[in-house]
Amino acid sequence: MQLLSFVIPCYHSAATLAAVTQQIRETVQADGRYAYEIILVNDNPADDTWQEILRLKQQDPQIFGICMSRNFGQASALLAGYRHVHGDIVVSLDDDGQTPPSEMFRLIDALDEETDIVYASYPTKHHSAFRNFGSKVNDWMATWLMGKPKDLYMASYYAARRFIIDEMVKCENPFPYVDGLAVRSTSRFKNVPIDHKDRTEGESGYTFAKLLSLWFNGFTAFSVKPLRIATVMGMVFSLLGFLFAVMVIVRKIILLDRIDAGWSSIVAIVLLLDGILMMMLGLVGEYVGRMYMTMNKSPQYVIRTTTAAPGEKDPSVDR
Asked: pTM of the full predicted structure?
């Protein structure tokens, strides 16, 4: 019997985890074709999520809990969970019940010979306008910077073959970007429509700062296109400056035209160019800073503890 591994990053989800894990258990048992394991990764929120994971572990031995030492973000939590899986197929889903486990086999059964990852797509999304905006920006970035197919929607609910997960966990970058790792690992994707549910408890943990950090992780780790844009912009403004200088010389020497001081226009141009230069310098600095932190082996995540019992082999040992 094949094994399904479910990986769930947990953040402020003490009130929803019981229902999510129960749906997973009931759905797999009703189908009867697979065994299952559930990896719950507590991303160290300031609530009782870890205590709830410990309670669920007592009820179901197929649950394995991981507690991070601090909040490292969803991508790091996912990779921490991926390094513990044993299944032939890995399913990632959210902890809030909006990605219904009851529809998991619509994704799993779509993993045919021509498909390595199946993503859920949502005809109607029950997210806030801010979260939907963030998803659209993320989708555009993945398409433009990483070569994601335009018609592919990359959701947080997906089923992947084990070899794809094994390839993802080779990443040791302290700023991981899961969608980019998927695009880098395969080109065989598929979307399957899934009903997106309303959030029953709490609110999204994604703030503007976290979304901005996610976008930076994407385009600094998987593309140099922003640096190429900076180069092109530098060339364009240099050309404009050269043409302007030629125009001034022609007007002054050849046409004997009187040129006014134009203090306001000069200040505006200087401020514009200096602003662009500082922005591009900051972009280069972002790349260099992340390279420096990677070279100094800044941790992708740190695990404080797991639910492995004393004397029990801890599956956190790297495969």
From this structure: 0.74
